[in-house]
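Reopening: Small ribosomal subunit protein bS6 still failing for me.
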Amino acid sequence: MALYEHVFLARQDISQQQVDALVEQYKGIIETNGGSVGRIESWGLRALTYRINKNRKAYYSLLNINAPAAAVAELERQQRINEDVLRFMTIRVEEHEEGQSAMLARRDDRRDRDDNKFGGRDDDRPRRPRRPRDNEAGEGAE
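Support: Ran it again with your exact input. Result attached.
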């Protein structure tokens, strides 16, 4: 059996519980066709780069799949029919990544950077001299 990474985008109008139900439904499709689903990641509600079917946001979900090609074809067929699924993409991989995916790792990195947001400047960051504005330079002051 081949290894796949499958990502799908669900409409913003549905709830997180409905997205979880979709994931369970698709997991069942894979398992009934002789495959298995490893890691499941929910990346949450994220903004889209451009509108898709009048949606500006979508729920992202990742499934690591170990299944025959027929099971993946059935999964994609079911997702084409479902109106709650905006887009999906399946990629065949040599092996699944250990640990978090790049999307979740990036989210954690952002949180670490945001912790320093109100703590002041980093000492190792170069500082630029402040340029005076036109009204601060004394021009036009009466």
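The chain has a mean pLDDT of 84. If you still see a failure, please send the error message rather than a screenshot.
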